[in-house]
Amino acid sequence: MKPGRVVASFDSATGMLRALSRFLHGRDVPLIGQGPATAEPVASALLGAANMLPRRLQERAYAASGWAEAVPPHKVGSIRSDELARWVTGHYPRRRGQVAFVGSANGALIHLCAALAAPWLPQTLLIPVRRRGVRPDEPREDLRHTRAAGQALLSANPDLVLHHMHDANQDRLMIAGMTYFRVKWRRLPAAYRRYLEENLAPGGTLVVADCGLRWPVTEVDTRYVFQHGALGGATRDEYQNGGPRVADYLRRYGSPHRRWDYPPVDGQRPEAEWGFEPGLLPDLQELAARNGWRLARMSFAEPEHLSPVIADLYREWYQHRGLPADRLLAECFLLLEPWWTLRSGSVPYWMVFNSEPSRASLTGYLDRADPFEEIRLLLFSHGVESVGLATIERWREVLARASKIGVFTGIDTRAYPRDFASLARAHRELAQIRATVPMPLPMDWPTAEKYLADRDELQWDTEANGNTSAR
Amino acid sequence: MSLFRQDHVVDDLTIAGHRKRGPGSAVVCVHGAGVSSRELLPFVDALGERHDVWAIDLPGFGASDKPDRPLTLSALADVVAAWVDQAGLERPCLLGASFGCQVVVDVAVRHPEAAAALVLAGPTVDPRGRSPWRLVGQWLRNARGESPRMTPLNIADYRDAGLRGVLAAFGESIRDRIEDKLTHVSVPTLVLRGGRDRMVPQPWAEEVTRLLPYGRLVVMEGLPHMTPYRDPGGVARCVEDFLSEVAV
């Protein structure tokens, strides 16, 4: 199978890879990078029509779209991680730079990379695998049915760790007919090595994006863990022990269960989607030492901890350029627009998802930051009224924080969280903004590094020629 | 208290006014191109519960006197400013609907003492749509979203104004460069846009708000261009909130 068909196109890592690589090619991100801008009106009309279907039909269509791009179980053993790595590096232009990133997926990181015109190589990719005969609320059954496929994947790819993941809350529709295999490289693939050697200049800095988020898991086998639940609206305790919100959610979706039955937890590991697996570090250290690069480790406890750091960085950068810096673009999950962020002179604030904790993190940032005249909000629709979903009314309260213009961008508020047209309309509406500013030259790396090293939200460790220092 | 008619004479022309005298501060509504205060009366009725609300017919339209020749936009604005004085209102809030926004912006810029706040409901004309044909196209596309009950009112208005008056008003709306004036509006201004308004695209409504030194945008989802007619209660609540916020 072609690597592009193996990896999920609707995932955070792939969405971010597309957004950044398109930016580095000087392009924006229509249709979440999946099609040309000329197709947007048609896609927007078709998806808009889908928004009007009866709810059951919508949910089935959404689930079917996910299933259609999942890998049949018998083909999982033929997936080769080297090909996936080549597919990743193939996205980027060949260009020598002073800095490159590798590691955790993170929307704020994508804006940092865009500002620096630097590439980012993801440690984690999502391989969706088709599966039958399991209800979404039965994580234990999911593992039982797909464990063999997981083991086949691992025996063919000794450089991967498999984080088999099951989130019956937020991925309810997607996991109806498939399961999520998130794979993390624990050894640096040859294609990454080659790409970095060709594109990172001698004396350059290789930065490890190290998200420290961990999650309770079940150890299934060597290099194979199973993760029940995910970062979002429900708490870890709710995933493990249930509770009134979980019971209510399961009742609303007609589930016979009132809590989830999952395999026993026996440890904690880097979170499947966002966490950094440190097994990759020795290879990165060796590569940096051999090429005369500095290796920097940018550690942050949770994905959204990077968001205010990068928002402030952009704000200072605009101010330094003599621009107003009073426009905020709040982005969600894979709805990212690095090109239009800069074109519209917007400060980017990235949120993990559309849930209440993400809304609270954005509100917390607004409480601390100088007021914004304009706030634009992109919201990802996952089709589920999941536990902890932030309602449209709650998002309206955020928009009311803008002193002049607080607007949903590309969102049909009546259809949310089943607004599938937002995938096409988010970029389309954003691109119509009339207040544009000139695109800047890339940000100076030493200035950015000093700024990042000084921020309390991050831990910044550097290694050069065997010496380690931390700030 | 119900709606009643109260006329004033400005520059020898009788200006028809419709008023509902609520307890709060004064709000004066100015209609769009070629039409009259007919379409604004349900809104006057709703907001009049709380504010002293007027809707006036510009000279040449509705029940007001017809001047010898159609007035230019600045002449219409001068009449509005003189009317405010004549009616004895002290710095009311001026609310424009469609072309009425262009009139009240002109008033606020050239007669700063005439208004304490503005409401721009569907501010025309988007500079990128500034041609007669584009305007007609936008008008036709928007018409599908408007209430069918508004059509007989429009017809009566066009009959009152006559073809010459209607065309002159549209001509004035196209010639006016509202974008040059917005930065000079020194009072708090609420910009209202119907989410389905085809005459005022969202990027233009945002640009209007951005250009205003004290602007704020509210998008009323699902509504067409004539928000005060389609949802008089909703628009009245919006305006009330705005007026209580800016303490007018």
Low-confidence spans of chain B: pLDDT under 50, at least 5 residues?
Answer: none
| Average pLDDT level of chain A | 95
Strand order of the largest sheet of chain A: 2-1-6-10-15-16
CATH topology of chain B: Rossmann fold
Q: Could you walk me through the main structural features you see in this protein, from its secondary elements to its overall organization?
A:
- The complex is a heterodimer of chains A (471) and B (248).
- In chain A, 37% of the residues lie in helices and 21% in strands.
- Chain A is an alpha/beta fold.
- Chain A has two domains: 3-300, no CATH class; 304-430, no CATH class.
- In chain A, the strands form three sheets. In chain A, strands 2-1-6-10-15-16 form a six-stranded mixed sheet, with helices on both faces. A six-stranded mixed sheet of chain A has the order 3-5-4-8-7-9.
- In chain A, helix 15 links the parallel strand 13 and strand 14 (405-408).
- In chain A, helix 2 (12-24) runs parallel beside helix 6, helix 3 (40-50) crosses helix 16 (422-430) and helix 5 (81-89) packs parallel to helix 8 (190-199).
- Chain B contains nine helices and ten strands.
- Chain B is globular.
- The two termini of chain B are 22 Å apart.
- The model of chain B has no long low-confidence stretch (mean pLDDT 96).
- Chain A binds chain B through residues 373-374, 403-407, 413-414, 429, 432-435, and chain B through 201-204, 206-207, 209-210, 212, 215-217, 219, 221-222.
- Chain A: The chain crosses the membrane at residues 99-121.
- Chain A: Keywords: Membrane, Transmembrane, Transmembrane helix.
